[in-house]
Amino acid sequence: MNLSRTTLSVILALGISPLAGAADLLELYRAAQSQDATFGAARAARDAGQEKLTQGRALMLPSVNLTANTTKNDVHTVLPVDSTKKYNSHGYGVSLVQPLFREQNWALYTESELQVAQSEAQFKQAEQDLVLRVAQAYFDVLIAQDSVQLAAAQKTAIAQQLEQAKRNFEVGTATITDTHEAQARYDLIIAQEIAAQSALEIKRRGLQQLVNADPGQLSALGQNLKLEPPQPASVDQWVEDARRSNPQLAIAQAGAELADKEVDRNRGGHLPTIDIVANYNNSYTGYNSFTGGATDIRSTSVGLQLNMPLFQGGATQSKWREADANRTRANQELENARRNVEVQTRQAYLGVVNGIAQVQALQQALKSSESLLEASKLGHEVGVRTNLDVLNAQQQAYATRRDLYQAEYNYLISQLRLKAAVGGLVEEDVTRVNQALH
Prior knowledge:
The chain is an alpha+beta fold. The chain folds into two domains: 5-59 and 103-270 and 315-434, Outer membrane efflux proteins (OEP); 63-101 and 273-307, Outer membrane efflux proteins (OEP) (Single Sheet), CATH 2.20.200. It has ten helices and four strands; from the N terminus they run H-H-H-E-E-H-H-H-H-E-E-H-H-H. The chain has helices at residues 5-12, 25-35, 37-58, 103-171, 176-211, 235-245, 247-267, 315-382, 387-421, 427-434; strands at residues 63-77, 83-101, 273-285, 295-307. A four-stranded antiparallel beta sheet has the order 1-2-3-4, with no helix packed on it. The model is unreliable at 1-20 (pLDDT under 50).
């Protein structure tokens, strides 16, 4: 780039140099990884999703239960003999059930594998969203700072024009109209500066929300911004890569497969289940009416248990129809995700390609605007340009500069969005963008 924020500070005589300890994009991204509440929730959701596999596997493993009881008995008998017996009875039992054939449990186990894959894809999406949210908030603050500085610089320039118009009017070389024009522009830029300062405060608070701290002074965009076209230089190739690796598609694909498994699971609602069942029981009674003494009974049993659901009030068929409808919904959501990802990928690709062209065009436009401003000032001095011409040229130069800065930030964001579209946005990409800052 031929122009920079440093050049701006020299030209406008009011640029604010970054502090020695200015925070950059990479530092704030790393801070957001531990402080952003949305990302923290996504991390917890991923951890919760990991447990689905353990829960699904547990359905295939044996279950063991222990039961115990103790009872105090006070029995009063009237006939044939009036007597009272007080005794204690207690016991315990252990039961084991090992599923042999449970079609629905197997389906739930295979579903748990898909749920884990889906939670991983959701977390990957959250990681990439965090990069984009931090970068967008960072550059929003920078463009807001630029707007404040540009407004202040424009106010200074207009104030000079206003003073000159007043002096010229006093000596009779200009009309009162020049003074009114300059005053109107000065009043307008005051309002714009206030609005810019308010917008800057709002943008800073947005960035603060992500890192849970005052971001302080930010590193600004340097003069060595490299305008690099996408590689490969084929939008169709990027779209193809997105179809294979985009986390949104992975989430939707896992959802469709889960819905398909649910149909199979509910279709098997009338299938029998077969389990190995083993029991051990120990029962002690302090008094037995037949023997007159205590009894201690121990029993062990092992066998197969068959359960055949015959009729559940129509619930089984209803659940199957519900699962079938949900499968249709999931397939439609998958198709919608495919279309959205394709559109997003093409938009990001064009954002990079067109962003380069726009930045280059605005760089040339800024040169032309500054040349026009200098020519207008010179023309005003020799009487061939009016004060209004100078004010208009100033406004055009500042607006072009602001548009250039915005185009540069949009280009960098588009680069990140393009990498996110193919599921490849990582910290190294943040580092690469961060190198453009100083």
